[in-house]
Write a structure and sequence with these properties.
CATH class of the largest domain: Alpha Beta
Bound molecules: adenosine-5'-diphosphate
CATH architecture of the largest domain: 3-Layer(aba) Sandwich
Structural class: alpha+beta
Mean pLDDT: 91
Largest sheet: 6 strands, mixed
Order of helices and strands: EEEHEEEHHHEHEHEEHHEEEEEHEEEHEE
Helix content: 25-40%
Number of domains: 2
CATH topology of the largest domain: Rossmann fold
Number of strands: 20
Length: about 375
């Protein structure tokens, strides 16, 4: 397999001793859209800057298309970077801004003209090519920054919170544009964001980082349904986490002894699970069912085994075709459950009791 980008045991420790990135490993395929996601200070930008060459690698190997680039200057790397503030040149018009990188590279005039016109057209900027960038809107400035990075035909485009400065509506529409453009060009994009929805909407895979370490690398859906650590389960989506002690591990289904009795989940992350280990069950909000408590106990057991928790429906409301409910568990904990109105209407009512229930395969066990 040929990879566009590989990080092998990459570390970054700043001169003041701050360990910003710890043992980062990833293989990125050509044309993948990768997001680095995590709270402020977890090492996302540092990793991006190491890939671009604006920051040195303390330890480990950084490979682009199979070549080790640790010691290569930024301008020699086949990467382009877009910064959050776009860093456009105020004294240049749109065309001159876009042309800048080609001039630095010494691209012949005729070839440069053709490339600049091509990318201005692709990004719908030809009509404003001769205007000063200072007079343009946030969305236009964003597209100019994109055009300027893409005109040099990088193998990898690096984006540092490029939508951070835009308002919510514009953000959404530029997200769509970005995704279409990336698909169209087939270039690898590596994108830094602290906005979960953005990472989930755009990426093929998301790297979740926490305090310098990679917690999990997964496609968005898997991150949602199969978090592999406590941090990811709390950071992504809407999960209920129930701690317990391993009772048995059979055919990748782990059963825990919990405050709610014996509960099971699948061991997809492949954690070692020996009797007596402290682990937790993660229940994604969309994986649980609410079964009215007057349903025959034998039927509930046949469908869900022992994966049931008695609860009270504290509140419910219907929003379009969705019924949203807040339920209270026996230990007082409240959690949100929702489902299609047709499934729940006439079966559940506020103040009534029910069983929260799930099939073992829909829940995941993680280390506590
Ligand atoms: P993120 O992009 O996830 O917000 P950063 O990569 O910017 O995180 O920072 C990771 C850690 O490295 C933080 O603790 C931050 O304070 C520290 N850091 C970032 N840049 C520098 C620097 N130039 N010198 C020293 N420490 C830095």
């Amino acid at each position: 397999m040929d990879y566009d980008l590989q990080l092998r045991n990459v570390y970054k420790t700043y001169d003041n001793g701050t360990p910003a990135v710890i043992d980062f490993n990833i293989d990125v395929e050509k044309g993948e859209f990768i997001a680095f996601l995590g709270p402020s200070g977890c090492g996302k930008s540092t990793t991006l800057r190491m890939i671009s060459g604006f920051e040195t690698v303390t330890k480990g190997d950084l490979l682009i298309r199979g070549n080790r680039v640790n010691d290569q200057l930024p301008e020699k790397r086949p990467t382009s970077m877009i910064f959050q503030n776009y860093a456009l040149f105020p004294h240049m018009n749109v065309r001159q801004n876009v042309r800048f990188g080609l001039e630095v590279k010494g691209t012949p005039k005729v070839e440069a003209d053709a490339k600049v016109d091509g990318i201005l057209e692709k990004l719908d900027l030809l009509g404003i090519a001769d205007l000063a960038t200072t007079r343009l809107s946030g969305g236009q400035r964003q597209r100019i920054a994109l055009a300027r990075s893409l005109v040099v035909e990088p193998d990898i485009l690096l984006l540092d919170e490029p939508l951070g400065a835009l308002d919510a509506n514009l953000r959404k529409s530029i997200q769509n544009e970005l995704k279409l453009l990336q698909h169209d060009l087939g270039i690898t994009f590596v994108f830094v964001t602290h906005a979960q929805s953005e990472a989930l909407a755009l990426s093929d895979r998301i790297v979740v980082m926490n305090a310098g370490r990679v917690e999990q690398i997964s496609p968005p859906r898997e991150l949602y349904t199969r978090p592999s650590s406590n941090f990811v389960a709390r950071f992504i989506g809407s999960n209920t986490i129930i701690p317990g002690t391993v009772q048995r591990d059979k055919d990748d289904v782990v059963t825990l002894d919990t405050a709610f009795g014996l509960l099971s989940g699948s061991n997809r992350a492949g954690h070692s699970a020996s009797a007596g280990d402290k682990m937790s069950i993660v229940l994604p909000a969309e994986a649980v069912d609410l079964v009215p408590s007057d349903v025959d106990a034998a039927k509930i057991r046949a469908d869900f085994g022992s994966n049931t928790i008695h609860c009270t429906i504290a509140r419910l409301q219907i929003v379009g075709h969705i019924m949203q409910m807040v339920v209270q568990l026996e230990n007082g904990e409240m959690l949100d459950v929702e489902g299609h109105v047709d499934k729940y209407r006439d079966r559940l009512k506020a103040g009534g009791t029910a069983f929260l229930a799930w099939r073992s395969a829909a829940a995941t066990v993680i280390d506590s």
